[in-house]
Each structure stands twice: as structure tokens, then as C-alpha cells.
């Protein structure tokens, strides 16, 4: 299973002429997850040819406007398009209070049905789960209660070697146990170890989304070993004092988080609008964590 991440918005609170506020789509086979929904998200979905009807699950990290102001517009458009589905929204509980009056004002019967799932803002929790993937929320450190999200593929069973089935005359009834990790005893009493009978499954894929947040070491244990880490980098080190005051991070701090969490790759975004060019962010982060990329709008990142 592969994950495909599309960046819709990479800027912080103030949009620029070429960077939108935070929004991303994580496409997992069978599911399409929208992560944050800043102003202009539906325009970016159009530009990137992502069908509105695929959006069934929306995750909102916190209630600063640049992370949810695009939500009512998106829901309204989905309704006008006649999308007939439940839309699950995982967000701080106050979000429903904020946008329900706008939903009530939409004329006619709603074709979509928003279903709100309040997040626990103080401790990690599983917020979504099916047979293939689970999504965890966890608290980060910001000026208002905020969570990050960890999207994690569930481990698969080992693959049994076909030649071993024939070589040891393994009955069909035993295959399930062997794939789950059991050894096999032959008719003459020999014990065949599982590692000889099987090939290990691929490592489960994982993606972590951490914004908005100051540098917060407790996050590292939760996202340990993640394949791709998106971590905010609102400022450069030259504005570290401002980052600390506003409870945001610098590019170097994002890289430090990737390093201590043993991430495979780092993606930085949520750039302050005061920076017109972004190459210095990548340069600063790569001094600490080499495998760093910039979150570029419209670009897809494959895990």
C-alpha cells in the first residue's frame, strides 16, 4: 500500500499571491483524507483535479482560522454538486458550534451529512480505524489547544513461500496460523521455524502531520520511525525569539524533531508570509536533517 500526499496550502496565517493557508490531501488506497481546510481549499482541490466526492474524512488540527476557514465553503460546494454521503469531521468540539449556523442557513435539503467527531485535545487517541489504517491524534504545543495527526498502516501478515507448502506438505488449515507467526510441525515430528516458511511483509507506511506547534520533544515518541514527517517551519532561526513567543517552530527546530523521532523524510511548511523565497528554509533544515524537502503547493509526495 502506498500513501500519496498532495499539498494544497503551505503558508501560515496570511495567504500570499502564490501560497494558500494549510490544507493537504492524503490519498490511501480506498480512502482520501483532507487534513486542515484553510481558505481556498476547494479552489486548490479543483486545480489538482481531486474529486470533491472523494472527501469523506476531514481532520482539523485547531481553530485558528487559517486551518478551517475553507470548510464551510467546501461543504456548501459539495452540497451544490449533489454529493450524497456522510462527511466525517474530526476537530475540536467548538467547531460544530462555529459552523452549524452557516450549515443551517444553506437553503434546501442537505445532500451531504456532516458528522462531527470531537477530538481529545489533552492526550493521544485513535480517531479513525478500519482494516488497513488507523489515525491517531495527539497534543502538540501551541497558543490554543492543537493536535497533530499520525496516519499509520496496520501491519500485514507474513507471506508464506509457495515452495515451502509443497516441500513440507503443509495443509491449508495450517497456512493461516503460519502467516500469523506460527512454526510448523511435520508429520515426522520436525519443527520448521516460521522464518524459513515465510517472507516478512513490507514495513507499514506512516505519515505524521505536526502543525501548528513549537518544538515539543514529547511528540518524538509518538511519531517515532515515521516514514514522512510534515512539521511546521514558520520562521528561520534569525526569528527564533518570535517563534518562541508565538509557539511556532523554525526550520532548524523542525529538522531537530525529524532527527530525534528517527523520521525517514521531513517535509516543512506553514511558512510565514514575510518570506518571499523559501530556499533558505531547506538550507537551514538540511544542516540538521539532510533528507528535507519544502512543501510545494500542487506537488505530490509518495510514501
From TrEMBL:
The active site is at 66 (proton acceptor). Gene3D superfamilies: Ribonuclease Z/Hydroxyacylglutathione hydrolase-like (3.60.15.10). SUPFAM superfamilies: Metallo-hydrolase/oxidoreductase (SSF56281). GO terms for molecular function: 3'-tRNA processing endoribonuclease activity; zinc ion binding. Its cofactor is Zn(2+). It catalyses: Endonucleolytic cleavage of RNA, removing extra 3' nucleotides from tRNA precursor, generating 3' termini of tRNAs. A 3'-hydroxy group is left at the tRNA terminus and a 5'-phosphoryl group is left at the trailer molecule. Binds 2 Zn(2+) ions. Zn(2+) 2 binds at residues 66-67, 212, 270. InterPro entries: RibonucZ/Hydroxyglut_hydro, RNase_Z/BN. Its EC number is 3.1.26.11. It holds the Pfam family Anti-Pycsar_Apyc1. Keywords: Endonuclease, Hydrolase, Metal-binding, Nuclease, tRNA processing, Zinc. Zn(2+) 1 binds at residues 62, 64, 142, 212. Belongs to the RNase Z family. Homodimer. Zinc phosphodiesterase, which displays some tRNA 3'-processing endonuclease activity. Probably involved in tRNA maturation, by removing a 3'-trailer from precursor tRNA. This is Ribonuclease Z. It comes from Draconibacterium sediminis.
